[in-house]
Amino acid sequence: MRRVVVSAAVFLVLLFAFTAYAEVKTDFGASFRLRQEVWDNLVSLDTIQSAVAKDRNFFRLRVSAWGKASFNKDISIYTRLTTEPKYQIGSYKVNVKGDKLDEDELIVDNLYADFKNIFGAPVDLRIGRQDFLGPDGFGDGFLLLDGTPGDGSRSFYFNAARLTWRIAQGHSVDLVYISDTWKDTYLPVLHPGNKKQLTASNEQGFVVYSKNKLGEAINIEPYYIYKRENAYGATPRLKLNTIGARAVFNQNNWTVKGEFAHQFGDYDGGRDRTGNGGYIFLARKYPQVTLKPEFELGFVYLSGDDPATAKHEGWNPLFSRAPAWNELIIYTLIYETSRDAGPIPGYWTNMLIYKAGGKVSFTQATGLSAAYSYLAADEATRGLNPVMFSNSGKGRGHMIQGMLTHKFNKQFDGFLQLEYFMPKSFYNDNAKNALFFRWQLQYRI
Question: What is the pLDDT of the chain when averaged over all its residues?
């Protein structure tokens, strides 16, 4: 551990030392994100009375500062520091002392070096703590999105080495090694006694991901992912292989996209683990029509564990325990999957989602989106807490979503978000409707 800390300190010193030279180009920036969130019956649908399941109303302020030093067009270093204190309103307390303010820790959110066109070849290497978001991401983030699900949206980083081979125009292959720990052990933080849990256990992964553009309309992205999840609690170590592919077709304002993956592996002790998951969405834009309407229809399938068999057939979301098709459901999954995944939100599994949504743009800066989803389970459960779950039904319930967005200028934006869930037969008859509300203002320098 001492070597890791010293190496990180030297890395940071070099970053700022090199900026003293005129030939080194530097860039700096910061962002401020203020949110208020209201959770009503969110975690247990008001069936389980515990500290985890209590309703919440709180503010969260994420502050990030970043710097980049480019030594030439091919070599650069990037670092970002982040903290996100939270303040609770009402009866919820952040600890046993009764505090309402979670001061949070100051973390090294990103710290990586980029080496492009290595030895003149079409090969790039990024090594260090990095995000897989936006243009640096992998598809829709179905399996590779968030390396730190335990801290919510404070951070998304992976401790990784990523080699990209640009084979030809429109064709590339990424080789990625990942090492994520349940609490940060690679880099120091302020308030080290308050380190947050980031994953359910220590996790390692290896990824081969190919991106291929076939003409102007079709993209095909096959991949292989190996993941090892170390033991946690009574759950033994898991070694899991995932083979899949993503495809996207775009033409004349129509988009069809889909992804499917198969998983196979085993736990220590010999219990088999398999799973299947995928989605398909059809979307259409009308850019020449007033309000520029858009619509989308989609279906998501994530296999569930059949309680009548010895093996585990439930889908494993790998590195994507994050909001995907909604925000609200990821919290109800805590009690459903904690035996298999640790008490981390967003362990998407045993799920069928039928979704229809649309969007209109009142101006270039203001838009409104809405969606309806019917959610079901692939398998009825057995042995889950009967206070919350029926252990017989498969109908999860109805979900309504809405979001109003506005961009004040290039640096300042915000939104209002509402989700409402009405549970059905998958849950106990005492389960109540749940509400998630959030507003956000974000400013970037």
Answer: 92
All residues at 6 or more sequence positions from 141 whose CB lies less than 8 Å from its CB, including other chains: 132, 133, 320, 322, 324
Q: Give the H/E segment covering residue 141.
A: none
Per-residue pLDDT tens for 224-257? 999 999 998 888 999 999 999 999 999 999 999 9
Instruction: Check whether 21 has a pLDDT greater than 90.
Output: no
The whole-number average pLDDT for the span 273-282 is 98
Specify the 3-state DSSP secondary structure of 329: helix
Which structure tokens are listed for 76? 């650069």
103: left (phi over 0), alpha (psi -120 to 50) or beta: alpha
Cβ atoms 69, 57 nearer than 8 A: no
59 within 8 A of 36, measured Cβ to Cβ: yes
d(CA 326, CA 37): 15
Cα(308)–Cα(154) distance, integer angstroms:
39
What type of residue is 415? F
Identify the CA nearest to 239 among candidates 274, 278, 277.
Answer: 274
Can you name the residues that pair with 435 across neighbouring β-strands?
A: 40, 420
Q: Are 13 and 5 in contact (CB under 8 A)?
A: no
Helix (H, G, I), strand (E, B), or coil: what is residue 101? Answer: strand
> Which DSSP helix (H) or strand (E) runs through 232?
none
Q: By mean pLDDT, which of 40-54, 163-177, 201-215, 290-304 is the weakest?
A: 40-54
Domain topology for 2-444: Porin (2.40.160)
Of 269-283, 332-346, 359-373, the range with the lowest mean pLDDT is 332-346
> What are 418's two structure tokens?
């509402």
Q: For residue 255, what are the contacts with CB-CB under 8 A and spacing of at least 6?
A: 248, 249, 281, 282, 283, 284, 285
- The 10s digit of each residue's pLDDT in 36-47 is 999 999 999 999
Q: Would the pTM count as exceeding 0.85?
A: yes
Torsion of Cα atoms, 404 then 352 then 209 then 297, to 10° = -50
Token pair in block for residue 245 = 């592919």
